[in-house]
């Protein structure tokens, strides 16, 4: 069981409730992390995206992709490319902000193994409480005005 808190904590619990490990960020974690292939991905309010080892809680990588992340609640997305081979690598997606206000201005796609930025997409309107889905190698999401987007995970 994995839990993140707005106060910057990420925790792993056993089914009996015993805490297995704790990771503390020096900034808020406004979103719901995503998990894939033994890694947990999250973003902090400083615009940093990071990956933790799900077994140990050890930091695998950290990359700063923006000045901030908005304080609204949203979800990260992790895409496993091993089944359909449409992208060429696993992708992590986060919504990020240029100013840290209530909205995120753009969506960033990163390589899951390293956090290296692959693409950056700016929707017509900012995103708020972003929840993304993946289908056939694409990311599907809506902006704050309800406009739907479907972009390729390979190149944005």
TrEMBL record:
Residues 2-156 form the Pyrrolo-quinoline quinone repeat domain. Pfam families: PQQ_2. Gene3D superfamilies: YVTN repeat-like/Quinoprotein amine dehydrogenase. It comes from the Eukaryota. SUPFAM superfamilies: Quinoprotein alcohol dehydrogenase-like (SSF50998). SMART domains: PQQ (SM00564). PANTHER family: CELL SURFACE PROTEIN, OUTER MEMBRANE PROTEIN ASSEMBLY FACTOR BAMB. This is Pyrrolo-quinoline quinone repeat domain-containing protein.
